[in-house]
Amino acid sequence: MIIGYTAGVYDLFHIGHLNLLKNAKGFCDKLVVGVTVDELVMYKGKRAMIPFEDRIEIVRSCKYVDAAVPQYDMDKLKVCKELGASIMFVGDDWYGTEKWKKYDEEFAEAGIKIVYFPYTKGISSTKISEALKAVRGWTIDEFQTKKHLNYEEEQ
């Protein structure tokens, strides 16, 4: 059985995310997807609009995903080894960067292949966030505050 792994924030799930998962599933029998926990997103200097629990459920519900797991740290090689994954899938926007050149060597030494898929041009969660800000006039912090207040009102 060929196990594949990919990971990401999957905030504001869009067609680029779907393309990656669909393509990845075509290369393996079992696709495991790591969804970055909120604390790690903030550690990376960003903030997800959609809470972790919702993001992992969205990913888990995708028909191309066999299992969704929390991503607690950036050590993808360790996770691949723990899962028994023989393939790691990423977008080609990372290809050729110093970080991923090093990963290519480390993964190859462990017998794990990295497959780079074409990045879906013109779409990203960041672009969606920027468009929402431009159209709606609010930031991620304001969105989360409004969402939190609406949630409390419903209780």
Explain what you see.
The protein has 155 residues and is an alpha/beta fold. It is built from seven helices and five strands. It has a five-stranded parallel β-sheet, sandwiched between helices. Strand 1, helix 1 (15-25) and strand 2 (30-36) form a beta-alpha-beta unit. The chain is globular and about 50 Å long. Residues 147-155 have low confidence and may be disordered.
Strand arrangement in the largest pleated sheet: 3-2-1-4-5
End-to-end Cα distance, whole Å, is 46 Å
> Could you state the oligomeric state of the chains shown?
single chain
Radius of gyration: 17 Å
Number of helices: 7
Q: Main β-sheet, in a few words?
A: 5 strands, parallel
**Unreliable segments of 5+ consecutive residues:** 147-155
**Class from helix and strand fractions:** alpha/beta
Shape: globular
Number of strands: 5
Mean pLDDT: 84
Series of H and E elements:
EHEHHEHEHEHH
* Fraction of helical residues: 40-55%
- Estimate the strand proportion: 15-25%
Write the layout of secondary structure elements.
Elements: E1 3-8, H1 15-25, E2 30-36, H2 38-43, H3 52-60, E3 67-71, H4 76-83, E4 87-91, H5 98-109, E5 113-117, H6 125-136, H7 140-154
Parallel strand pairs: 1-2, 1-4, 2-3, 4-5
Characteristic terms for this protein:
47% helix, alpha/beta, 18% strand, 7 helices
